[in-house]
Amino acid sequence: TYAYSASKAALHQMTRMLAGHLGHRNITCNAIAPGPFETKMMAQTLRDFGDAIVGNIPLGRIGQPEDIAATCIYLASRAGAYTTGAVIPVDGGSLVIKAKA
């Protein structure tokens, strides 16, 4: 919906603003932007259009909880200490153009 899309855009902008305001304290602020995952909100959509959705994901699958967990672990670890203000897509490549084989 329009409201849902607007709320996501607002969170992305808030992430960047907080990163700028908190960086001098060595506080990082990032957002994870999940693509299609099996959730209550996506259940009916995946039942109705799951094959089409998966067909448009370059990695060819719906996201798993481990995909989000791994991103959280990265951001919480020393490896992610220099990452701030980022909106990290965890979407199997949904935002890129899929090459035709």
TrEMBL record:
Belongs to the short-chain dehydrogenases/reductases (SDR) family. The keyword Aminoacyl-tRNA synthetase does not apply. Keywords: NADP, Oxidoreductase. InterPro entries: NAD(P)-bd_dom_sf (IPR036291), SDR_fam (IPR002347), Sec_Metab_Biosynth_SDR (IPR052178). Pfam families: adh_short_C2. The keyword NADP applies. GO terms for molecular function: oxidoreductase activity. It comes from the Eukaryota. This is SDR family oxidoreductase.
